[in-house]
Amino acid sequence: MKFSEVVQRLGVPVDRTSLSLESAHDPEMVGVAAVDEATSGQLSYIDGAKFAAQIKTTQAIALILPRSQDLQAAATERSIAWIETAEPRLMFAQAIALFYQAFQPDPEIHPTAVIHPTAKIGTEVAIGAHVVIQANVTVGNQVCIHPNVVIYPDARIGDRVVLHANCTIHERTRLGTDCVIQPGAVIGAEGFGFVPTAQGWYKMQQSGCVVLEDGVEVGCNSTIDRPAVGETRIAQQTKLDNLVHIGHGAQIGFGCAFAAQVGLAGGVEVGNRVILAGQVGVANDAKIGDGAIASSKTGVHGTVNPGQVVSGYPCVDHKIYLKSSAIYSRLPDMYQTLKQLQKRVEELENQGLERAE
Amino acid sequence: MKFSEVVQRLGVPVDRTSLSLESAHDPEMVGVAAVDEATSGQLSYIDGAKFAAQIKTTQAIALILPRSQDLQAAATERSIAWIETAEPRLMFAQAIALFYQAFQPDPEIHPTAVIHPTAKIGTEVAIGAHVVIQANVTVGNQVCIHPNVVIYPDARIGDRVVLHANCTIHERTRLGTDCVIQPGAVIGAEGFGFVPTAQGWYKMQQSGCVVLEDGVEVGCNSTIDRPAVGETRIAQQTKLDNLVHIGHGAQIGFGCAFAAQVGLAGGVEVGNRVILAGQVGVANDAKIGDGAIASSKTGVHGTVNPGQVVSGYPCVDHKIYLKSSAIYSRLPDMYQTLKQLQKRVEELENQGLERAE
Amino acid sequence: MKFSEVVQRLGVPVDRTSLSLESAHDPEMVGVAAVDEATSGQLSYIDGAKFAAQIKTTQAIALILPRSQDLQAAATERSIAWIETAEPRLMFAQAIALFYQAFQPDPEIHPTAVIHPTAKIGTEVAIGAHVVIQANVTVGNQVCIHPNVVIYPDARIGDRVVLHANCTIHERTRLGTDCVIQPGAVIGAEGFGFVPTAQGWYKMQQSGCVVLEDGVEVGCNSTIDRPAVGETRIAQQTKLDNLVHIGHGAQIGFGCAFAAQVGLAGGVEVGNRVILAGQVGVANDAKIGDGAIASSKTGVHGTVNPGQVVSGYPCVDHKIYLKSSAIYSRLPDMYQTLKQLQKRVEELENQGLERAE
Q1: Environment class of A147 (CB within 10 Å of its CB; exposed 0-12, middle 13-18, buried 19+)
Q2: Which chains touch A (3 or more CB pairs under 8 A)?
Q3: For position C357, what pLDDT does the model report?
Q4: C or N: which end of chain C has fewer Cβ atoms within 10 Å?
């Protein structure tokens, strides 16, 4: 693909590219790569000062650059074609999609799939080998179900959903349109509901269900449990990374992103556009407000206010955490200083006493 | 189902219900729900003061209540039928089971299941599509094996066990009766046994096995490893949530509950009725006594005494943890105060010196 | 197997065993066991002082011992045959392999496996029931693929690789020779790449791939993601335990060992022979030098130097961590002491003031 075609497909005005220069050339692009790994013919990007030095060494033949005359001049000097944009990383993501599409099986049903006669299957659906679809399941149009997926009875799968290999969708689960479930994820299994009694644990039947709204994505081997009654619900466009656990009855807003190994206890309430970094844990009394952020490994209890950034275990405001954790390694010194001060004050007190006598 | 039938099935004496009142009515119940989500015709429960206010707004037509004349009067006033019990949550769990049963496939063997001729299969067993059962496996009576489960050779599966979709049971694993293994769980895989040598890691064959006693439940995508020699053993009625890891050779008592993402290193010893909250980690030298509790994210090293409650990383007694963690966010202030005190004491000492001269 | 045969197969000179003694006997060995669990006829080992007392009570008929005349004399006294070695645990691992081999299916292709006609399958390959191998996959010689494994298109599987049940290998993944992938692991799925925009998350296609070099092992239900561009690479002989997450684009050296539930964010760089204990988290800016160690639950940010041992969250040098965490539980006392000191100093200052007046 010619550079000029990339520019056109990305919808960038020519005067924001090196094509507007007198020295303009229009190289052939063969793919995309990171700026420090690009080889001849590849398109890359530079996003901010951190990578700016690499403009002098990169082998990329074209670059997506931020709005910086210096960077553009440096690229031009090395005969690197460039595109200017306010959001280089976003445009690079769009550029990747010009050169690459993930594996998409043909829309056909493999003869080894076992589909219950009461299941309703939409049009243009791909169902892979050894898939099992139980009674009364509804599958929308243009859905892609990869091999060895199991769908329990009464589940509803929205249009254009992708279910990757070996994942499990439990009874009554409802997936909106355009959801992606990565391999091994388990949606809608029984919540961890055991009531303590004198005779031991009494198992509470989990009669509720899991609802994932449109555009939710769930990472590999993540687990989202259904509750005893009601719903576990994740609102639209929320994205979960791998090995995430969502407890029974949790209510999660739209546009959130939870990184790998995050765990939410049952009944947690999370607002919209909340970001939880890796290995964050949220206890079962917690309410997290819209737009809040928890940094990695944070242990969230109680209430996090909208827009608040929290860190630490137990979590505190991120600014306090930074200060307190910086002092943590000085604790032994503080302890010694404190002991010495005690002695010195005692001595001063004794001197005062002597003087008073 | 009439309210009176619910009362009867739950075994509650009529004089502990609103049926004993003059104003008694006997509404039709159509299901169960949380008190703040119940719609007309649903049964719900109130467990303690936290939810008491909702008695004024709930749409539930009947409630399971604690022993409180105030709550009962409030329910009666709103024409809500009620049942009194010392343990509302437990009775609600029993009530759910009146209205709901989890999906239970018919006891038949799907023709696509691949079962080794040497395997012994009990009576009334359900074996789903694409299940694989290897040589010399023994499966008890009334066992339910959901689709795409794989059982390696020589495993023994007790009566009434449920193996959910896509889970894997390794060679020589022994499951007692009434165990439930949720989807994607892996029981009895090789422990992480590598001996460091000058030439790199030497792989220790894991010749032992995993034993789960009667009534053990294992959550989605949890993993329980077998040891090099001997057994990894989990005693009866212990319940594990999702994404839990149990290392090779761990010994776990009966009636424990481990929440999601708990991890136990190899060789750990855990007593009976121990509760580990979410994301707790237990190091490989640890011994945890009967009835101990570790709060979420606790890092357990060394010995935890029977009945002790521990928190923090590294763990300390929970009361100490509460005090210390409360002070954590004041560390910057403490540090400043300490520095100032040092100066002030120095000044006092200098004044004393001057006076002494 | 006779003890003398075990000695010979392990390659130990007879004069380093009890066979060199006058009182020598040559018992029959029936298996291996831990020293405190061994029954008659079993071989065990003692590794260091911690277990030395058990030499007086063990029922083992032979022991692998460290170079200690005392231990050897104690064994001889109880008529226990013994082998002397500098590394008892390593030799015990070698001894296990004399008595035990993990389940190895016959090299045949099960008729229910679905193999794309363009896939290239090597010689002496075992492919279990319900395996799915997509287009253009290459499988080396003597590979063992257990039931219900799914391999996406264009993956390359090296010689002697073992893929355990229910694991998923994504498109373009490259596995070197002798890799072992435990059940449920997912290799090469889409990295968690979403670019924030005013309209919500924009999904970045993940066009890269995962490369595992020779001898890499991946634990049950672990997940290794592919990046947007380039590779996620794990160098040879690195071993991952269960439920480990490796983010997109991470670069990991050779000979590392990561314990269960470790999580690495995208783009992390890890050197050679690095050891990460259980539940360690590594943030996306981190670089960990060769031979570094992080103790369990450590939260790694920034740079860890070669050979450094770090602990804590956020991580600090292990020695500092030990001191600081020891003081953590004294924080309430320190706080009280500090408050009292403040008062006492104030009083002293007031006295000085009075005296000065």
Answers
A1: buried
A2: B, C
A3: 65
A4: C
Chain C residues whose CB is inside 8 A of the A313 CB are 313
Size of interface A-B (CB pairs under 8 A): 197
Torsion, Cα C8 C14 C18 C22, to 10 degrees, reads 130
Whole-angstrom CA distances from C160 to A5, A96, C117, C326 are 46, 35, 22, 48
Among C residues 62-121, those touching chain A with beta carbons less than 8 Å apart: 112, 114
Say if the Cβ atoms of C329 and B313 lie within 8 Å.
Answer: no
Q: Cα-flanking dihedrals φ and ψ of residue C271, to 5°?
A: -75, -160
* Contact between chains at B32 and A197 (C-beta distance less than 8 A): no
CB contact under 8 A, B245 and C237: no
Nearest-CB residue to C261 (from B263, B299, B316) = B263
| A353 interfaces chain C, CB cutoff of 8 Å | no
> CA-CA distance, C295 to C206, in Å (whole number)?
32
Average pLDDT value for chain C: 95
Tell me which residue has tokens 């339910």: B144
| Other beta carbons within 10 Å of A316 | 19
Question: B residues 207-266 near C, CB within 8 Å?
Answer: 207, 221, 223, 225, 228-230, 243, 245, 247, 261, 263, 265
- Given B128, B255, B328, which is nearest A324 (Cβ)? B328
CA distance A124 to chain B (A): 24
Side chain identity, residue B61: I
Tell me the per-residue pLDDT of A286-301, one tens digit each, with 9 for 90 and over: 999 999 999 999 999 9
Task: Please report the sign of the dihedral spanned by the C-alpha atoms of residue B173, residue B174, residue B178, residue B179.
Answer: negative
Q: What is the ipTM of this complex?
A: 0.95
Check: CB of residue A164 under 8 Å from CB of residue A158. Answer: no
List B116, B248, B301, B318, catalytic entry: B248
Q: Which structural domains are found in chain A, ordered by start?
A: 3-99 (3.40.1390.10), 167-314 (2.160.10.10)
Distance CA C140, CA C157 (A): 6
pLDDT digits (tens, 9 = 90+) for C261-320: 999 999 999 999 999 999 999 999 899 999 999 999 999 999 999 999 999 988 999 999
Where residue C218 falls among pLDDT bands split at 50, 70, 90?
very high
Query: Under DSSP, is residue B91 helix (H, G, I), strand (E, B) or coil?
Result: helix
Task: State pLDDT tens for residues B168-179.
Answer: 999 999 999 999
Instruction: Fill in the DSSP letter of residue B40.
Output: T
SS (HEC) of chain A: CEHHHHHHHCCCCHHHEHHHCCCCCCCECCEECCCCCCCCCEEEECCCHHHHHHHHCCCCCEEEECCCHHHHHHHHHCCCEEEECCCHHHHHHHHHHHHCCCCCCCCCECCCCEECCCCEECCCCEECCCCEECCCCEECCCCEECCCCEECCCCEECCCCEECCCCEECCCCEECCCCEECCCCEEEEECCCEEEECCEEEECCCCCEEEECCCCEECCCCEEEECCCCEEEECCCCEECCCCEECCCCEECCCCEECCCCEECCCCEECCCCEECCCCEECCCCEECCCCEECCCCEECCEECCCCEEECCCCEEHHHHHHHHHHHCCHHHHHHHHHHHHHHHHHHHHHHHHHHC
- In a mutagenesis test of the C interface, which of B205, B269, B349 is the best target, namely the one with the most C β-carbons within 10 Å? B205
Rounded Cα–Cα distance for residues C299 and B171 (Å)? 36
**Nearest CA distance, A205 vs chain B (angstrom):** 6
Residue A19, both tokens: 């094509």
Q: How far is the alpha carbon of B197 from chain A, nearest alpha carbon, in Å?
A: 32
Q: Which of C99, C183, C237 sits opposite B200 (nearest CB)?
A: C237
Backbone angles phi, psi at C161, to 5 degrees: -70, 145
Chain C residues whose CB is inside 8 A of the A146 CB are 150
